[in-house]
Design a protein that fits this description.
- With about 230 residues, the chain is an alpha+beta fold.
- The chain contains eight helices and four strands, in the order E-E-H-E-E-H-H-H-H-H-H-H.
- The protein has a four-stranded antiparallel β-sheet.
- The radius of gyration is 23 Å and the shape is elongated.
């Protein structure tokens, strides 16, 4: 990952360490920074931090910043970061942020749409078209999960092409949370097997499958968005 020549991640409130630089006692503050997505963000944050009086040098990369300074308050540095339009995750994590629950639900919904296309499509293919092939239920489920991941990445790539080039969109989509998508896929298919005894779709299986697929990764997606400012999709 390219880094600005002028820093890494606020792993807590403010981690400071001392070192000698030109016979002057300097401090280093490391911040985790949310809301960064490109080298333009790196340049903007670099400029904002360099403008703070007492800052000697900074090193910025997407998602983090390291500031070498002389006796500058942590609140002043984090204020410069938020003033530039970025976020500094709270040191004390909490589960009570309604805005984050709402945003993570929206992200989870889009993940569910993408995963369901490939998952349901695969099950339907074996149930209604390739009926003369006897595949074990586990094999069909594993293929359905794989295809679900692929269609979710494809959908996210398509959505992101409105904001970036297709190659950038594909790389970003591939960086989505596999934990979220895999748990979603596993939940949907387990519910299907518990209801039908195999890889089958029916009108009464879809609502519980979708509900399980949504609820299972939602808390994880909240945590990931709240702590790291990263969405599942």
């Amino acid at each position: 990952m390219n880094r600005g020549t002028y820093g890494p991640a606020f792993k807590g409130a403010a981690g400071f360490k001392r070192y000698r630089d030109s016979a002057m006692d300097m401090e280093t503050a490391t911040f985790e920074v949310g809301g960064m997505s490109c080298q333009g963000c790196v340049a903007n944050l670099t400029s904002a931090l360099q403008s703070v009086e007492g800052v000697a040098s900074v090193e910025v990369e997407i998602g983090s910043a390291v500031v070498h300074h002389e006796d500058v308050a942590a609140a002043t540095l984090s204020g410069a970061i938020t003033g530039a339009g970025f976020t500094v995750p709270e040191s004390n994590f909490n589960w009570g942020n309604r805005a984050v629950w709402k945003q993570s639900a929206h992200n989870t919904k889009w993940c569910l749409v993408g995963c369901s296309i490939g998952d349901f499509g695969t099950i339907a293919f074996f149930q209604f078209i390739l009926t003369d092939v006897s595949w074990p239920t586990m094999n069909i489920m594993l293929l359905a999960m794989f295809n679900g991941l692929m269609t979710s990445i494809a959908l996210e790539t398509f959505i992101l092409t409105k904001q970036m080039t297709i190659s950038q969109a594909f790389r970003t989509a591939c960086g989505m949370s596999l934990i979220s998508m895999l748990s979603m896929e596993a939940a949907m298919n387990i519910v299907d097997v518990l209801i039908t005894g195999g890889a089958m779709l029916a009108w009464y299986t879809l609502p519980p499958m979708l509900l399980a697929g949504f609820l299972t990764p939602w808390p994880y997606n909240y945590w990931r968005l709240k702590k790291f400012d990263k969405a599942c999709c």
